[in-house]
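Quick one:
INPUT:
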């Protein structure tokens, strides 16, 4: 019996967990960028969101 199937299962579970966590963080930051009470917080949240999704400006 090999450990490869168990290892692949563990890696897949870790990948799914990390993806869901990252998606949750991006969702919270996106909501903050819209719903924050002060313009400074909205601006900071938009900057953080740009960093998280690596949005690059062309040109």
């Amino acid at each position: 019996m090999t450990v490869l199937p168990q290892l692949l299962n563990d890696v897949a579970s870790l990948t799914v967990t990390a993806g869901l966590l990252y998606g949750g963080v991006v969702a919270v930051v996106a909501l903050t960028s819209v719903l924050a009470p002060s313009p400074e917080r909205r601006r900071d949240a938009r900057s953080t969101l740009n960093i998280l999704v690596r949005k690059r400006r062309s040109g």
